[in-house]
Request: fold
Amino acid sequence: MFARPALEILFFTIVFVISSCSSDSNRNAGPSDRFDFFVTVEDSSSIIDPTLVAYFRDQQPAIENVLNNLFSLPERDINIVYQDCMVENARYLSEPSEIIMCYRLLAAITNAEDGIYQQGNAMLGMFNWITWHEIGHALIDHYDIPSLGQKEDMADSLATVFFLETSGSNILARVKRARAIVLVGEYINTLNSGDLRWADAHTVSPQRQYNLVCWAVGAERNIENDANIQQIVTELKAARRICPNEYAEKKAAMEELIGAYLNIDRGGNL
Ligand SMILES: [Zn+2]
Reply:
């Protein structure tokens, strides 16, 4: 059983200074915002605890508000649906534009390993990063973001940047999210560690873990000394990866590629 998360908003906190439609000339000059994100939270047939379904229902208006205030959608709506599903997965479908977040995935994360993901509701942070990964796919699709690499890596990058940059001004929230990203990497690496899928569109699981740790540490130095990532951090340094630069490059690329669709005050935090 889970303690129902308190009033903490784990998913999105408005960090951006949202511009009002009427006063922001930048927005008027940018892409039209004719469509919206919609969030549907379905019941669960005992896949997850009802308190978690209630949690997502509580969050539903905030998720919609933040997404709709942040992003312009000029072409069509994006629906986010939380439901049981038959698989432990999450996915984005282009037509109609829909993100499916499966409760089975949340249950799998919660039950994995020795239950460490339950600590401090870490599994919710992990699940929310995965939601951002799927939103990343939706943004790539809707905004026709050009790519010279795999879209799965782009989705990981977009998820990490948005998950961290929407954590609000509270540094503890940002640190908590950075740690959740590390745990996502750890979880991904447990999924098929004995069967590396070299032909897959996803980067192989161990490297995804190294990437996520690098970007999380690069964005948030406060987690650099966490015991569970010391080996990886050492190896990243030995490989001469400069993680703060990697994160900064991703954030800058995101702004360059889709900044026109973001309704933010340019004096804001992004
Ligand atoms: Zn993906």
Summary: The CA atoms of residues 49 and 172 lie 27 Å apart. Residues 25-261 form one domain. Residues 133, 137, 152, 155 surround zinc ion (CB under 6 Å). Residues 1-10, 13-28, 266-270 have pLDDT under 50 and may be disordered.
